[in-house]
Amino acid sequence: MTAAYQWEIPGTWLNLLVLCLFIPAYVVGSMLSASIAYSMVVERVLGSRLERIVLGMLWIYTYWGVSELVIFALDLSSPSNLLRSLHAANIQVCMGLTGLFNLFLAMERFFLIRRIADRVSTKYYVLFLAFFVIAIVPSVWAVFTSPLHLNIIATEAVQARVQSLSVLLLVVDIIGVIVFYTSTYILSLKLIREITSNLSPEKERARIMAERRVLFSCTVMSGSFIAFSIPVVINVAFPSDAAWAISGTIVLDNVIAPALILYFMPMIREAWMNRVVRALVMGACWWGRRKQQADEDKDDEYGGRYTAGSEDSTSVELVTPQVPFTVIRVTQGG
Fold first, then answer.
1. What confidence tens digit (pLDDT) does each residue in 55-71 have?
2. Which of 189, 257, 327, 331 has the maximum number of C-beta atoms within 10 A of its C-beta?
3. pLDDT per residue as tens digits for the range 217-250
């Protein structure tokens, strides 16, 4: 049963958030994520599992932005409870997937520092993926079978308890990211102390320092997700208009996450520059040349022009401009 629903957010709040935050963030985020993912595929920057995890995150952010824009457009043209339930379910799935892949990113850094082989660590990815499916499927059922508070929270008793699984999933993601990155940082410090206590194995020290820089970049990327996810947990636990508005900033992760990927991952940034930025520059140059050629053609078209004067007499004047041909100007006058 789909119960009747009305917007509970004040119109001013809702309009400001949708027009000034949601739509721009979804548009910019989906375009940026799709362009980076396309560059990675074309340039074949997929050699490691870490890079494949990043690619998966980018496709999720692309889907998140495009799907929400489509739902917004459909709801504007033909509002319905089904679309609003679809919006609530879509938000939960996308947030859950981004949280899952942020956790995968933290796990992969830990496995690399510990030098655990892919074939050994794969089972842990499968375990967390199964946990995600078990948690998210009942939560999606809950938003389709209950009236919604603040357009996302199920109000029926059973559905509200079931939906709490999605919040639990988000909390587990946050805790898991913190635990894995903390463990990786402690392990990297231990390795550095062991290396520096020996007689200067420079190459090994350089390798560990490089891993620490990668660790820092991954921590910052996942930190943005954690910072935007905590208000969502608060909104579900203590729903209010203000909490809903603050939790809406989660959409900014659609822009910040791909931007941080470009900033911290040089191989991906180089692939994006080669494919996307170069194509944009070449397109701008082509458009500039076409415009210049059009202006030159227009000048040539009006190069020989007539000026009207007196009808009594006609004189012919040879004008030799700085072009490889001579223009004959015909004037009529006294």
1. 999 999 999 999 999 98
2. 257
3. 667 877 777 887 787 777 777 766 666 666 677 8
Higher pLDDT, 215 or 331: 215
Tell me the sheet residues that pair with 314. 332
Both tokens of residue 219?
């921590």
For residue 184, give the nearest of 222, 230, 152 by alpha carbon. Answer: 222
pTM for the structure as a whole:
0.75
140-167 burial code (b ≥16 CB/10 A, e <16): bebbbbbbbebbbbbbbeebeebbbbbb
Instruction: Band the pLDDT of 316: cuts 50, 70, 90.
Output: very low
H helix count then E strand count, the chain: 11, 4
| Backbone angles phi and psi of 326, in degrees to 5 | -105, 135
Q: Which residues contact 133 (CB under 8 A, 6 or more apart)?
A: none
**Distance in angstroms (rounded) separating the CA atoms of residues 288 and 182:** 52
The answer to whether 160 touches 142, Cβ cutoff 8 Å, is yes
Q: Taking 70 as the threshold, does the pLDDT of residue 8 lie above it?
A: no
| 153-154 and 314-319 beta bridge pairing | unpaired
**Residue 56 zone, left/alpha/beta (φ > 0; ψ -120 to 50; rest):** alpha
In whole angstroms, what is the distance from residue 212 CA to residue 224 CA? 19
Measured CA to CA, the distance from residue 175 to residue 182 in angstroms comes to 11
Beta bridge partners of 330: 316
Q: Which comes out higher in pLDDT, residue 273 or 315?
A: 273
Buried b (16+ CB within 10 A) or exposed e, 263-283: ebbeebbebbeebbeeeeeee
Query: At 44, phi and psi to the nearest 5?
Result: 60, 50
Q: Which of 168, 169, 150 has the alpha carbon at shortest distance from 246?
A: 150
- Distances in Å between the Cα of 66 and the Cα atoms of 83, 124, 219, 320 are 15, 30, 27, 60
